[in-house]
TrEMBL record:
This is Fibronectin type III domain-containing protein. Pfam families: fn3. The lineage of its organism: Bacteria, Pseudomonadati, Pseudomonadota, Gammaproteobacteria, Candidatus Kentrum. The keyword Nucleotidyltransferase does not apply. Keywords: Coiled coil.
Length: 203
C-alpha cells in the first residue's frame, strides 16, 4: 500500500529525518539521490531555525499585545475621567460638550400607552366558558400584557376577568344564561390602551 505524504509539520519533519538517515545508511541502494543527504539535512535545519524564530516572535507579539491592551485601558480611563469632569463642569450642556466631540445625556423617550386592540372575536364557546382571540394594536407603545374585561349587557360597569401575554384566551367559570359583553385592553408600564371592540355572548 502506498504511503500518504503527511500534512502535519511535525510528521513532515520526522519523515525528513528518517529519509536522511535511511539514505545515509544505505548508499549502496541509493547511491545518487536528487538531493544530497547534506542538502536535505541543511533544509531541515533551516526549518527548525525558522520555527524557533517564529515561536520567539509569537512570544514577543503576545507581550506586545498585552502591553497594548494595558495602555488602551489607561487611555480609556483617562478619557472617561476627562469627560466626567467636562459633564459636571458644564452641567451636561450638549453644545459645550460637542466642543470635545462628546454630547450630553440622552433623555429617555417616555413609554407610550399601547394602541387599541382590534378584531376581537369569539371562535368558540360553551356553557360557562368562552374562547377569545384578537389582533395586537397597530400603534402605540410596547405591550406588556392584555387584560380581559366583562360586563353584563346594559351595564356600564366592567370587571377584570383575565390577563394573558398571548393574543388569545379561554375564560371558564363564566355566568351562564346572561348576556355578557367581553373586551380586551392592552397594557404596559405607562398604563392602559383604548379598549377593543366588544363581543356579546350568552353562555
Amino acid at each position: 500500500m502506498t504511503s500518504k505524504f503527511p500534512s502535519v509539520e511535525a510528521k513532515i519533519l520526522n519523515l525528513g529525518r528518517e529519509v536522511s538517515a535511511g539514505l545515509a545508511a544505505n548508499t549502496d541502494i541509493y547511491p545518487a539521490p536528487p538531493v544530497s543527504v547534506a542538502d536535505l539535512d541543511a533544509v531541515i535545519a533551516d526549518y527548525e531555525e525558522a520555527k524557533e524564530a517564529l515561536v520567539a516572535a509569537q512570544a514577543k507579539a503576545k507581550l506586545a499585545l498585552e502591553k497594548k491592551d494595558r495602555v488602551l485601558d489607561a487611555v480609556v480611563a483617562s478619557i472617561k475621567s476627562e469627560l466626567r469632569y467636562a459633564e459636571n463642569t458644564v452641567d451636561y450642556d450638549d453644545g459645550k460638550l460637542k466642543l470635545l466631540g462628546w454630547s450630553g445625556r440622552r433623555h429617555k423617550t417616555p413609554l407610550a400607552l399601547p394602541g387599541a386592540v382590534y378584531d376581537l372575536e369569539s371562535p368558540d364557546r360553551g356553557e360557562g366558558w368562552i374562547a377569545l382571540d384578537w389582533k395586537k394594536p397597530k400603534d402605540g407603545g410596547n405591550i406588556a400584557s392584555y387584560k380581559i374585561q366583562r360586563r353584563e349587557d346594559g351595564s356600564e360597569h366592567w370587571s377584570d376577568v383575565g390577563v394573558t401575554l398571548e393574543r388569545k384566551i379561554t375564560l371558564s367559570g363564566q355566568e351562564s344564561g346572561k348576556r355578557l359583553v367581553f373586551r380586551v385592553v392592552a397594557i404596559n408600564k405607562a398604563g392602559e390602551g383604548k379598549p377593543s371592540n366588544g363581543v356579546l355572548a350568552v353562555l
